[in-house]
Hints:
Elements lengths: L2 H31 L7 H23 L4 H13 L4 H18 L4 E2 H24 L1 H13 L2 H11 L12 H17 L5 E6 L9 E6 L1 H10 L32
Antiparallel strand pairs: 1-3, 2-3
Amino acid sequence: MSTELYEEQKRLEKEAVDILSRKEFRDLTKAIEQGRFDTTKFGNALIKASYYPVRDKIQEYFDTNLKGHSHKTQQYIIYLCSGDVDKLTYTILQVLVKKLAQHNNAIKLVTLTGSIVAALKDVNLFEIAKENNPKLIAYLGNQFKRASARRKRELIQDHLDEFKEMRLGVSNAEDMRTGAILIDLVIKSGANIIEQTKLWRKGIDRYATFYIKFSDEAIAFLNDTYYIPPTMASYLPMIVPPKDWVSHKKGGYLTVK
């Protein structure tokens, strides 16, 4: 068998991997644009890797005996998530991963606090509606699983607006304080998923502003996660004999190891 054919076979295998990589990149870009990065295997892996340290830090915060305004904020956070630490942790990480990807890894602290509290208010709204109309929530739950971020907002607006009056009313300042505390807990959890920095972006900021970014550790984790195993590629039939199979992992295509 000629050397040219073997080289051509290797080229075809590399081309198959490149095609898959480009498709993976396109799908990932589309997910980021649509606010679905948290649902990709990359965003989901980052959430899973950070989950337990963040959860433990939030539980520690819940168990702390606070007083005055700090106690008020603590109780408001517990109210928003119905005391469910797991639900709170997942919601926070979901928003962080999604928003940072959408904003090219630099989002204003005040913007992110608002997004986190808005997501928690939606969670809280579902709990209120669940108590008052469980059949509606059973229906919406199935809809939500398949809905885009925009469609979810529409579903809430169409079906849950009537329950908003039942929510605990707090000031915007309290909402911002709540979001800031939750972000601070994530930073201090040791999960090393995000960091706070002061930036001045020309044409965007009038003065130095606090931003939240993925940490270097999180970026490194995502880089390591973005890997296309050669065995995932859709190879064509081979034009040369395959390598002998010497184990269940070694053999077949020339470039697959």
